Amino acid sequence: MDAQRKVLLVDDDEAPLGSAAARLRVEGYDALLVSDSQSAIARLDAFEPDLIVVGLRLDGLDGIVLFGEIFKRNPFLPVIILTQQGAMPDSVDTIRQGSYEFMEKPCVVDDLVERVSNLLQTGCDCSVEVKAEMVEAWRSEIISRSPAMDELLQQAKLVADSGATVLIQSESGTGKELLARALHKASSRNGGPFNAVNCSAIHENLLESELFGHVKGAFTGATNDHKGLLQAADGGTLFLDEVGDMPLGVQAKLLRSLEEREIRPVGSIRSMPFDVRIIAATNRDLEAAVEQGEFREDLYYRLKVISLELPPLRERREDIPMLANAFLEEFARMNNRSARRFSREAMDALVSADFPGNVRQLRNVVQQVVALSAAHVIPGALVKRAIKGDSGDLLSLAEEKERFERNYLIRVMKISNGNVSHAARLAKRNRTEFYKLLGRYELNPQEFRSAS
């Protein structure tokens, strides 16, 4: 047995696992015992455990955040979860990913040590299907661990290779194009092109040319033949985003092309065959649009051969920690910032928010806090302001005052190079009061010294 194998034990009541930690050390393991999720998260990178034993209560945000951080660092890290007799925490059913095993409390120390030893020697076989699914490249860009998304992706994989037209209906910002790309990657057409067009962003005349192409002289400015997206995507997939905003004239021509499997470029008298799989998406209620005469009924049913619906972010909150941390790394890297992490209050604020703009809004919020944060730990107050500001609401006088005060403290700490006494003198405040202000806004003097 390798004496360097490390075991992290997490329990809010340290007594039950204290004996287990001591026994593991006798057996030659490097065992570390902590009492809460935040302490565990703080030690994940430095301690780099080979296995984690979790005995604390998992319901609520603490459990979601802890397992989000574990999964982010190593999806296959073995975890033993200690549960009360006959009880299975709801959040465990929600997580449904990773190499998890369960033992009932109170557990016998010998049994726990034996389970740790077996897992470290043989690995955990309880999530073989999950592991196989997670390494599939077709869905690698979709960050999720929610049951709702898992069910949707299973449906998507079943229909991916059917060649049938798919209609994705969901709110704005949920990731419709990501799902369309995943469908393309999972299909036999993955060697062909994936083209996308936003039907609401292009004028009717230009949209027709963009889709079907045009010949030289078809209209003013048509100085050359132009291959449309339907022809350019031959052998692959064409994604029609916001198809509900497609003009009626273009709808009629698209319907005819889909039925005949031929396209006629603008200004041409000749048609040509094409072989393209259509995936359409909309945030509109197309049935209502049909009733109002804004969308052709025959095209609606032609597109809705298979219908998939992406759940909004508020219905899969367990995905928020993973998404937020992924965006945090992305924007820190883009802005040449050192590693950042969310404070507990900040992550709680993110998980609790409704995000009417869904994943797109979450991404905007994270981008904003990375740009505005001077500290390595992003405080809850900054996240709350970003969420409120992104919704377009006017901040209250108290909130504006807090924003000014925090920005002022950051400026003073930068000027003083993290020296609290110097900063307090500049702010004309006594040192004790100044320390309290820094604590209120979760500002660490050391981070300003290292930043310089």
UniProtKB/TrEMBL annotation:
<keyword id="KW-0804">Transcription</keyword>
<dbReference type="InterPro" id="IPR011006">
    <property type="entry name" value="CheY-like_superfamily"/>
</dbReference>
<dbReference type="Pfam" id="PF00158">
    <property type="entry name" value="Sigma54_activat"/>
</dbReference>
<feature type="domain" description="Response regulatory">
    <location>
        <begin position="6"/>
        <end position="120"/>
    </location>
</feature>
<keyword id="KW-0067">ATP-binding</keyword>
<dbReference type="InterPro" id="IPR003593">
    <property type="entry name" value="AAA+_ATPase"/>
</dbReference>
<dbReference type="InterPro" id="IPR001789">
    <property type="entry name" value="Sig_transdc_resp-reg_receiver"/>
</dbReference>
<protein>
    <submittedName>
        <fullName>Response regulator</fullName>
    </submittedName>
</protein>
<dbReference type="InterPro" id="IPR027417">
    <property type="entry name" value="P-loop_NTPase"/>
</dbReference>
<dbReference type="GO" id="GO:0003677">
    <property type="term" value="F:DNA binding"/>
</dbReference>
<dbReference type="InterPro" id="IPR009057">
    <property type="entry name" value="Homeodomain-like_sf"/>
</dbReference>
<dbReference type="InterPro" id="IPR002078">
    <property type="entry name" value="Sigma_54_int"/>
</dbReference>
<dbReference type="GO" id="GO:0006355">
    <property type="term" value="P:regulation of DNA-templated transcription"/>
</dbReference>
<dbReference type="InterPro" id="IPR025943">
    <property type="entry name" value="Sigma_54_int_dom_ATP-bd_2"/>
</dbReference>
<keyword id="KW-0547">Nucleotide-binding</keyword>
<dbReference type="Pfam" id="PF25601">
    <property type="entry name" value="AAA_lid_14"/>
</dbReference>
<dbReference type="InterPro" id="IPR025944">
    <property type="entry name" value="Sigma_54_int_dom_CS"/>
</dbReference>
<dbReference type="InterPro" id="IPR058031">
    <property type="entry name" value="AAA_lid_NorR"/>
</dbReference>
<keyword id="KW-0238">DNA-binding</keyword>
<dbReference type="GO" id="GO:0005524">
    <property type="term" value="F:ATP binding"/>
</dbReference>
<dbReference type="GO" id="GO:0000160">
    <property type="term" value="P:phosphorelay signal transduction system"/>
</dbReference>
<keyword id="KW-0805">Transcription regulation</keyword>
<feature type="domain" description="Sigma-54 factor interaction">
    <location>
        <begin position="142"/>
        <end position="371"/>
    </location>
</feature>
<dbReference type="Pfam" id="PF00072">
    <property type="entry name" value="Response_reg"/>
</dbReference>
